[in-house]
Design a protein that fits this description.
This protein has 394 residues and is α/β, with parallel strands linked by helices. The protein has twelve helices and 13 strands. The strands form three sheets. Strands 5-4-3-2-1-11-10-8-6 form a nine-stranded parallel beta sheet. A two-stranded parallel ribbon has the order 7-9. Strands 12-13 form a two-stranded antiparallel ribbon. It is globular. InterPro entries: GH. This is Beta-glucosidase/6-phospho-beta-glucosidase/beta-galactosidase.
């Protein structure tokens, strides 16, 4: 078993930072909607009290570059300085579905402009902090290509152009990584791609083959980044650093059919899925997003941690689990409050309520990880360490 080394805590808190436009033209800004942009220092400290010292957070490109080539960092610097003040390690999302309106995402200019933005952001971060910076250049290339390029659900509201959009986003991610590495060669990168399982009817070979082809599409963006597929896009193995995987309760389904419920005989164990990805890319993995809603929150965390530990015992290097989103947020389409987080909306005196059952489950899982850490440091795996807080595990 190989120990995590990348993050300051095994559990990460993910702040929902989507900033795309809906089909009705409304631009979302989830950092604003959850008040995290104003309360970032308080939010970071709340997580640290529970042993979470690493987070995923985001920049809002559309606010920073309101005019072409002019960068206004006033929406970002308070968050960056809050992270520095609290000693919070941040994986910064640079493009979480949103971009400035004055750029055509299907034009060659998009890749160049995004690379310049990434370079400018890296310069700001490098000037403000001395630690190794972490980035997620483009969030969920696969999902964005489907939702924005094939089904018109989010911007750019296209249909039948998913393949074109995917290749543009891959090229943009590569250009951003190159630009950031010119500023700080120490920089680390994660992907954040959906981890899915799609199955066919048991007695229909044709449907099973179609389902398997669809399932394998989940690896296209990662293959392109690594240069395993369409190397003319510029991909090379060094563009895959930590392979981040997003996994939710509805990530398994029957092709052209319903979601496979947890516990169903066709439901594939998460550990098996993680082993497959690790063998495919030979890179450390992280659960870059995972979570469930309402009463399912603690039981889902219980399941995911058990499967992650199973995968680790089978030799998979897993750097951490990001609870996402860590704050309840208003839904994209209708604004209803989605009760998914450890923390709730800010209330009186600016305090956020805490989901007690989620807090208790997190403490219990932290105790398990601490016990494993002690086993590693005293048993046959001596020398391994897990960043688990003693305070959280009590």
């Amino acid at each position: 078993m190989r120990e995590p080394t990348a993050f300051n805590s095994f559990f990460l808190g993910g702040f929902e930072c989507s900033s795309h436009r809906r089909a009705d033209g409304v631009r979302l800004d989830l950092l604003r909607a959850t008040s995290h942009d104003e309360a970032s220092e308080t939010d970071y400290r709340e997580l640290q009290r529970r042993g979470i010292r690493t987070v995923r957070d985001g920049l809002r490109w559309h606010l920073i570059e309101k005019e072409p080539g002019n960068y206004d960092w006033s929406s970002f610097l308070p968050m960056l300085r809050a992270a520095d003040a609290t000693g919070t390690q941040v994986v910064w999302d640079l493009c979480h579905y949103g971009w400035p309106d004055h750029i055509d995402i299907f034009s060659p200019e998009f890749v160049e402009r995004f690379a310049r933005f990434a370079e400018a952001a890296a310069l700001v971060i490098h000037a403000e902090i001395g630690s190794v910076p972490y980035f997620c250049p483009v969030n969920e290339i696969s999902y964005w290509s489907w939702a924005g390029g094939d089904t018109g659900r989010i911007n750019p509201f296209a249909n039948g152009l998913g393949g074109k959009l995917k290749r543009i986003l891959v090229r943009a991610a590569i250009a951003a990584i190159d630009a950031i590495r010119r500023i700080d060669s120490r920089a680390r990168f994660i992907t954040a791609e959906p981890l899915i399982n799609v199955v066919g009817y048991p007695h229909d070979v044709g449907h099973q083959l179609e389902a398997e082809r669809y399932r394998l599409c989940q690896f296209e963006a990662l293959d392109m980044l690594a240069g395993l597929q369409e190397p003319e896009l510029g991909g090379r193995p060094e563009y895959l650093d930590i392979v981040g995987l997003n996994f939710y309760p509805d990530n398994q389904w029957l092709l052209h059919g319903p979601t496979i419920p947890f516990g169903h005989h066709a439901y594939k164990p998460l550990a098996d899925m993680l082993v497959e990805v690790a063998q495919r890319y030979n890179r450390p993995l992280s659960m870059s997003e995972t979570g469930a809603e309402r009463t399912a929150r603690p039981s889902w965390v219980h399941y995911v941690v058990a499967e992650v530990l199973e995968a680790m015992q089978r030799g998979v290097q897993i750097e951490g689990i990001c609870l996402y989103p860590i704050i309840d947020y208003p839904g994209w389409d209708n604004g209803r409050m989605c009760d998914v987080g450890l923390l709730g909306p800010r209330g009186e005196h600016g305090r956020r309520p805490v989901c007690k059952r989620m807090e208790d489950e997190l403490a219990e899982q932290s105790r398990k990880l601490l016990a494993l850490q002690r086993e590693l440091t005293s048993g046959p795996y001596a020398g391994g360490t897990y960043a688990v807080s003693e305070a959280t595990s009590k």
